[in-house]
Amino acid sequence: MAKGRTEMEVGSDGVAVIYVANPPVNALSIDVLFSLKGHYEEALRRNDVKAIVLTGSGRSFSAGLDISAFADIRKPEQLKDHCILIESMTDIFEDAGKPSVAAIDGPALGGGLELSMVCQARISTPNAQLGLTELQFGVIPGFGGTQRLPRLVGLTKALEMMMLSKPINAEEAHELGLVDAVVSPNDLLNDARRWALDICESKRPWVRALYKTDKLESPEVAREILNSARVLSRKQAANLQHPLVCIDAVEEGIVSGPRAGLRKQVPGITDLGLTPRKVSKVAIVGCGLMGSGIATALILSHYPVILKEVDEKSLNAGIDRIKENLLSRVRKGKMTKEKYEKTLSLLTGVLDYEKFKTVDLAIEAVVENVKLKQQIFAELEQHCPSHCILATNTSTIDLNLIGEKTNSQERIVGTHFFAPAHIMPLLEIVRTPRASLQAVVTLLDVGKKIKKTPIVVGNCTGFAVYRMFFPYTQAALLLVDHGMDVYKIDQACTEFGMSIGPFRMTDLVGFGVALATGMQFLENFPELVYKSMLIPLMVEDKRTGEASQKGFYRYEGKRKASPDPEIMNYVNESRRIAGATPDPELLKLDNSAIAEMVFFPVINEACRVLGEGIAFKASDLDIASIFGMGFPPYRGGIMHWADSIGARRICTMLSEWEMKYDQFFKPCSHLLERAGAGLPLSASATMMMNQAKTKILGGC
Ligand SMILES: C[C@@H](O)CC(=O)SCCNC(=O)CCNC(=O)[C@H](O)C(C)(C)COP(=O)(O)OP(=O)(O)OC[C@H]1O[C@@H](n2cnc3c(N)ncnc32)[C@H](O)[C@@H]1OP(=O)(O)O
């Protein structure tokens, strides 16, 4: 028998009012939480809903998690449901495409207050009581309160409220900024509806508490406040651990970012207790080189695939590519003819979205055109089931931009494959703060099932691999401007262990891709780009790489590359424009020293990617460097190799080159901090802080 539920009414004003209904105090039972999730998702899907108001039936907003279920929560299987719902609070509610406002009358305590803080605003009556009172029950706020309350009322007040389990009244809450307005009970619902519509119409700010920083003290001051809270907690209840765990969760959010803090409450992505959803059928939009490769990888792992193109000609060309990918395996004896037929039978070519109604994952793999991708995602949202994950294979475009014309940001994820997609092992799973962890866990499962090595990365231009390796070619171009020979640099990099050097690689991918990627990086990271004119000068003369038979090398026949003395005309002009004079010191360098000048900037960018949270672990960057860019495996990956050299030396050399040549070599803060602390580059911010504390406290 269900224990409580939620009810929803959609008004003619386009506001959906969701009531928590579990008398007498609207405790948040599992039934209530799942019902709430369902109503929220319905409100987000409905075209007649512009905004949402969340309130409690009767004279209570919510007294928080159903404490009568607490005994069950200590059983692991119960925790899983709560974990899924905790992730929903953030991913579906706070980051949804429609604003929600909490209308609070009576108690909003524990998870009840946490629920209200997930909304973009809070309106309350003078009768409201607001507090995070969990510690009195021996648990910590588990629905994000450790992250949102400090960002709404400041760290000191938030810790006081949590440590003492002490609610505050509406007036104080309004003064602190925890509620946005205090109104009479008769006006509460209408004022909350109006407020929600005002956010919709940009008349009021769209605030996500999780990402507010204006109330947070500086890390140094915060550290003092947190340590004082620890000292007080130990004095008041020396034997209790959960207050200290609560303080740790608050600190993790301040040091490593609110999502890390949320995970501290509920650690990890894969150990969240989330289980991957079953993916029975996949759709792919676009079957050019990438789309056909992705389709090949999927049908080889027995996934039925719906392949869509714009016309018969393009569709047949794509299917022919897939046939050729499979026939190549038959020719090599890796696949029998029968297996070939059976695998190909999993593929269905279409020219419309009719068959998309039954897919669980849709992957867009069209050209890097923002408007086209936005249109496709709007169509996918319309034709795919509401649970279907909507993925893009983009290699540089911001996922938030791609999903801009949808209300489905929580299920939009990047699946960045590397050409040829059915062969290259790396798969970057790109998540935005809005992407649901459930979608990520499901994609990790699919990635493994199609025999990829998936890594989860954040959303930025180039994601992890291209972002990390962008300086590879940039450094090489800078060295050429300062007098070094193109072919010597390539030779130094192949001796280092790369299969091809930066210039041969640029010929291979083509100068058009190099320039387009360069423009993306120049637009997003202008201070990190070395602006060389060498490639644009060669493009002007129709030298565009291997495809035009002339690039940095000359090509006779199939892929035979020979040095081309003609390029010196372009090199000299590039040096003139750069105003760079050849440096005799550079010409004395041996291949090992040249490789360091090319790869230390790659390490530096890898540290930025780690420091910004685009990659969650240094080991992910090792995998990405080996499987995505061919970094020599025997060196263990870019970060492993860097730690074998030591952050201090890398920093010293980069600083020297920055002074001597260009700010392109400027060491980033992540690298500087670890060099200064003598820690490995994989050291987390908490390790940094603990080491600093040990130094301050004299090693106690
Ligand atoms: C998600 C995580 O962060 C974890 C949490 O949310 S932990 C829960 C935090 N919540 C609280 O600390 C609130 C505890 N409740 C109260 O402070 C008071 O009950 C009240 C202020 C909400 C109401 O007080 P009052 O009007 O005096 O009524 P009673 O205290 O007698 O309570 C009436 C009945 O409701 C039951 N009840 C109260 N809170 C909860 C709850 N969270 N879950 C389940 N049931 C709750 C209470 O036991 C009374 O029931 P009874 O059968 O009538 O005894």
TrEMBL record:
One of its GO terms (molecular function) is delta(3)-delta(2)-enoyl-CoA isomerase activity. The keyword Oxidoreductase applies. It catalyses: a 4-saturated-(3S)-3-hydroxyacyl-CoA = a (3E)-enoyl-CoA + H2O; a (3S)-3-hydroxyacyl-CoA = a (2E)-enoyl-CoA + H2O; a (3Z)-enoyl-CoA = a 4-saturated (2E)-enoyl-CoA; (3S)-3-hydroxybutanoyl-CoA = (3R)-3-hydroxybutanoyl-CoA. Keywords: Fatty acid metabolism, Isomerase, Lipid metabolism, Lyase, Multifunctional enzyme, NAD, Oxidoreductase, Peroxisome. One of its GO terms (cellular component) is peroxisome. It is found in: Peroxisome. Pathway: Lipid metabolism; fatty acid beta-oxidation. One of its GO terms (biological process) is fatty acid metabolic process. Residues 462-555 form the 3-hydroxyacyl-CoA dehydrogenase C-terminal domain. In the N-terminal section; belongs to the enoyl-CoA hydratase/isomerase family. Belongs to the enoyl-CoA hydratase/isomerase family. Residues 281-459 form the 3-hydroxyacyl-CoA dehydrogenase NAD binding domain. It comes from the Eukaryota. This is 3-hydroxyacyl-CoA dehydrogenase.
